[in-house]
Every structure is written in C-alpha cells, then in structure tokens.
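Hey, resending since the last one bounced:
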Amino acid sequence: MVYADLHVHTDTSDGQLALEAVPQAAREAGVSVVAVTDHDRVNPALEAPVVERPGVTIVHGIELRVATPEQRVDLLGYGLDPTPALEAEIDRLGADRRERGQQICDCLEAELGVDLDVTVDEHTGRPHLARAVLSHPDTAYDDGVAVFEDLIGRGRPCFEPRAVPSVQRGVSLLRDAAQIVGLAHPFRYDDPRAALDLCADLDAVERYYPYDRPTLGDKPVDTALLDATIETDDLLATGGSDAHGTEIGEAGLDREAFRPVGAALSIEP
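The structure tokens again:
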C-alpha cells in the first residue's frame, strides 16, 4: 500500500487538484504523506518545508527541468524553503512558460482551425492545452495521448522547447533551498544511463514510478541498473505517481520504504 506519494502536481502548475483538495484526495487513497512538486513553481500556500493538513503531511517540493549536454531531465527538490535565487529563476521560467504556452496555443488553433478560448499564463502547460483541445466541440480528438502524439509532443508540429537552466545551475539552486535533491523518473529519458550518471551529485532518485502508463510508450525499465545506482551512490529511493489529475497514490513508497526519506525530512512515519 502506498504510504507516501512524493510526486504530485496541483493547479499551481499543470495539475487539476487544488492544494486545498489534496488532503481529501490523500485520505481517499489511504496516503499519509504527499509531496507537492509542481513544475518549476513553488506553492505560496505552503508556509514551511513540511506542513500538516487534516489527515496528511504535505512536503513542499518542486520539479525543476534542467538541461544536460545529452538531454533534458527533471530534478525533484523536497523540503523546500525557497531562496531569492530560486524565486528569481522561477520568475524567469514563468515568463518563458507564458511565451511558450502562447506559441503552442497559436499553433494548435492554426492546425485545427478553431479558437480554443484559452487564457495562457505562467501556469499553462501542455496538459492544459491538450484538455482544451479535447473539450472543444469542433475537434476530432477524444484522447489526450493522441493530442501529444500528433501535435504537441517533442518533435511534433506544435511543440516548443523551453529555456531551462543547466543541470549544474539547477542542482546548485536546489541544494540551497531543499533538504533532498533527487532525479525524477530516470527511465523516461532517451538516455537513462546518462541521467543516472547525474545521481553521483544528488541525494535521491525516483525508484517507484508508474512507467506502465500508455502515454510513456514502451521504454524498458532496468530496475537492476537503478538499484545498483542507488547502492553505489548511496541514494535515497523516492517514488510517486506523478499525478496530474485528481487521484493520487498510483505509485509511491510503503511505510518502511519511506522511513529513510522521512528521516531526512524530519518526518516520523
């Protein structure tokens, strides 16, 4: 049973859950600890690195996309106390997200010949725009996966890249602001080995993750390589559902697996 889901998105970035709805969603799923890890955003309503809400402990976190020479990867920061430097980078990324979101929206409207009636802001991500396509009566799409595959996935006609910080910059920013810095979902990247090589400079790696989702395709998951990296680099094993909808707890840590992570965050399971 999932005790801690350490990868949850809210409507502060591109999730559907409001922060106020997280405790109820956690209770319904039987989850006791939730990490809110919005994309390149911190949640202003989380006043401390770890906060208590009715029936659930919420870890203030972030998922920060960074660039390496080989590819782009995502870092997870847990137990966040944002520094001025991190907040400045978040502001820059928000401006970039607005510009990118508008470019994607304009392209979708041109490709589909519709007005999506979307107000693009710093919270707007591709899932928002995919949902707008699905809800429009004059498009043929009824599956968000197809919107990504046809239009807004990497390499598709309406994809736009983001101006993200280097991995060195991202790690430095999170080191100053978070209690744990880890690598998210290593087998979602084109070169998982190169991604796992980054873990020598990190505290953790996401060990438990729903790689069987249809949106992720058929990439192999080498758990032996992942476990060897955890042992070699003396990493904390984290995990989570990467929830963007209203349900959490699809993946994560059981109570015993959470204990070392909880110790690093001063949370007693």
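The radius of gyration is 18 Å.

Sorry for the duplicate.
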